[in-house]
Amino acid sequence: MAKVLMLLPERDYDPTEAAVPWAALRKAGHEVIFATPGGQPAFADPRMVKHGFGLLNPLLMTRPDGLAAYRDMCSDPPFAHPIRHQDWASVEHDALLVPGGHAQGVKTLLESEAAQQCVVASFAANLPVAAICHGPVLLARSRMVDGRSVLHGRKTAALTCALEYSGWLMTCFWLGRYYRTYPTTVQAEVSAALASADDFVSGPLPLRRDRRDHPEHGFVVRDGQYVSARWPGDSHAFAAAFVSLLAEQR
């Protein structure tokens, strides 16, 4: 079975995007280890876990299955003992997982030079890599020796402009820029790192979220050893695609 390294920020990642793949990987028999900026346990965005969005909860709040998976992940012993980003090379791993998140704490992953070095090494070794939502921003910023992103020449999904702006428009009057991590959208930054703007794959209009029993409602892009997806509503399909990719490595 594979040893999967999950890169997390200091805090504020999306609980569904991390825990649903974690649960699927553990169910398939894989080992998941964690890396955080300072080697301390990293907890998800508290608004997505407990504070909520009031009347907008049905649209924006983490679903019960995602919360249940997140609680299980937090009780997993490796979660309590992560390595530091800078120590990634000291731990052998067979695959890499990069969840997303939009609150400000996620910047401690997206701007981590050590995490970017880990991404470059993983792509250079042709390891299976999976990234969702804001996760592809880290990949877009991870540069090879020629200065190009590891995503250059690949097709990818990521948080779309439509999804990012819809969350912001629904909440900006009371949460400000909560849904706008950076002035530049995820889609714009990731697209700029690609060989062609057409390599950014938006997928169908996300009218509903996927579920464990209906992963077909989600959308995933696979390009060789790389799997990507757009938002928490793709998490079950994303997890299934990553597990399938790892099964091919045997």
Walk me through the structure.
The structure is a single chain. Helix 1 (about 15-25) packs across helix 4 (about 65-75) and helix 1 (about 15-25) packs parallel to helix 11 (about 235-245). The chain is of the alpha/beta class. Strand 6 (about 220-225) and strand 7 form a beta hairpin. Helices cover about 40% and strands about 10% of the residues. The chain is globular, with a radius of gyration of 16 Å. The chain has helices at about 15-25, 45-50, 55-60, 65-75, 75-80, 105-110, 115-125, 135-140, 160-175, 185-190, 235-245, and strands at about 5, 30-35, 85, 95-100, 130, 220-225, 225-230. The longest helix has 15 residues, at about 160-175. Strands 3-2-1-4-5-7-6 form a 7-stranded mixed β-sheet, with helices on both faces. It is built from 11 helices and 7 strands.
List the main descriptive attributes of the protein structure presented here.
250 residues; globular; 7-stranded mixed β-sheet; 11 helices; alpha/beta
By secondary-structure content and strand pairing, the structural class works out as alpha/beta
The total beta strand count reads 7
Classify the helix fraction into a percent range: 25-40%
Shape: globular
The low-pLDDT segments are: none
Secondary-structure element order, as H and E?
EHEHHHHEEHHEHHHEEH
Count of discrete alpha- or pi-helical segments spanning 4 or more residues: 11
Portion of residues in beta strands equals 5-15%
Distance between the termini: 8 Å
